From TrEMBL:
<protein>
    <submittedName>
        <fullName>Uncharacterized protein</fullName>
    </submittedName>
</protein>
<keyword id="KW-0812">Transmembrane</keyword>
<keyword id="KW-0472">Membrane</keyword>
<feature type="transmembrane region" description="Helical">
    <location>
        <begin position="20"/>
        <end position="49"/>
    </location>
</feature>
<keyword id="KW-1133">Transmembrane helix</keyword>
């Protein structure tokens, strides 16, 4: 299942917390011109490193489909960032 929502929580150094909800589909549609450039760059990288583009695309799709339920947190000093994929 493709992820539907990404939640980003940031705890700033002054103790305030900020929570941002990012729906994946509208963000992907807005960034689709950049996505096209990224795909073209990926194809060039596959040719340079002699990797099959279909296999690389298959691997990227498997990572995308496995991402729902993933959580990771980065903490440095008094600032923390938590990203949750649903």
């Amino acid at each position: 299942m493709i992820p539907q929502l990404v939640t980003v929580r940031v705890r700033r150094s002054n103790g305030r917390r900020v929570r941002v909800y990012l729906p994946v589909l509208p963000v992907a549609l807005l960034l689709s011109p950049l996505l096209l450039l990224a795909v073209l760059g990926g194809c060039v990288a596959c040719l340079v490193f002699r990797i099959g583009p279909v296999g690389a695309l298959r691997g990227a799709a498997r990572v995308l489909w496995a991402s729902p339920g993933t959580r990771f947190e980065v903490e440095q000093g008094r600032t923390a960032v938590l990203v949750s994929v649903r």
